[in-house]
Task: inverse folding
């Protein structure tokens, strides 16, 4: 079996791994949630919101969840002394997600719907929000996703340009010399697997971009691959890739780009 075919199988395995990383792993369980009721005022909720929770589930007298109240808008401004009965988002499909949904089902839309109530069976089981992108299961999911993208890049390159001389021409002279040196040394020490195995993420991105194998323009692909590489490095070496709402929203956009690029690559192979 060729190295590329091995990676075809590995792509399937990584897809299965991603499916096991579900929203239930990052949600705040229902018993740990701070809630509010309809006859509370915005001012009352702000006064007791010492932990600066952005959203509160709204419950009735039977502790049934009715929807979500946005408390974040009053963090800097004075909150009105009016009941929130008509000032919260009612329970609907727009604000719920399944506990067994993939983490990426949430990430893909978390910049637009920053907080979701998590449903398990016929009950609300918890809450997941944009800030939860910092949690370790998300970090593991992101690493698996970016790895699967790089594998798809390898397969696409090898299918389109089977020989070393076919794809190495897209790299700079400096990168060519370095790669050929590393390949030669590996062969001399019985450590050779495949020429493409010695390329870095940026090399593969340059090959695909200069080889015009993907639909977006060269400038757009350069921007997207740079963002993906930065996210990969942050996920691998640090845990601040989504430390602020701005960076967390960038993660959501980057994940959508990864899925788009990966889908286009897999169509080619």
Result:
């Amino acid at each position: 079996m060729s190295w590329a075919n091995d990676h075809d199988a590995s792509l399937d395995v990584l897809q299965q791994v991603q499916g096991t990383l579900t929203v239930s792993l990052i949600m705040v369980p229902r018993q740990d949630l701070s809630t509010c009721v309809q006859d509370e005022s915005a001012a009352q909720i702000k006064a007791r919101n010492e932990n600066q929770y952005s959203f509160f589930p709204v419950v009735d007298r039977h502790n049934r969840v009715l929807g979500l109240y946005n408390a974040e808008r009053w963090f800097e401004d004075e909150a009105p002394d009016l009941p929130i009965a008509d000032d919260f988002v009612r329970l609907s499909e727009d604000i719920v997600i399944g506990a067994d949904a993939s983490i990426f089902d949430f990430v893909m839309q978390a910049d637009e719907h920053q907080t979701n109530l998590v449903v398990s069976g016929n009950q609300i089981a918890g809450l997941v929000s944009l800030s939860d992108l910092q949690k370790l299961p998300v970090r593991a999911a992101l690493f698996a996703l970016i790895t699967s993208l790089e594998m798809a890049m390898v397969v696409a390159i090898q299918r389109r340009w089977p020989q070393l001389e076919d794809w190495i021409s897209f790299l700079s002279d400096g990168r060519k010399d370095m790669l050929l040196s590393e390949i030669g040394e590996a062969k001399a020490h019985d450590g050779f697997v495949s020429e493409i195995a010695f390329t870095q993420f940026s090399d593969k991105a340059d090959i695909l971009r200069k080889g015009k194998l993907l639909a977006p323009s060269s400038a757009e692909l350069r921007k997207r691959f740079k963002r993906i590489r930065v996210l990969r490095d942050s996920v691998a070496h640090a845990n601040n890739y989504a430390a602020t709402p701005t960076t967390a929203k960038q993660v959501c956009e980057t994940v959508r780009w990864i899925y788009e690029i990966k889908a286009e690559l897999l169509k080619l192979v």
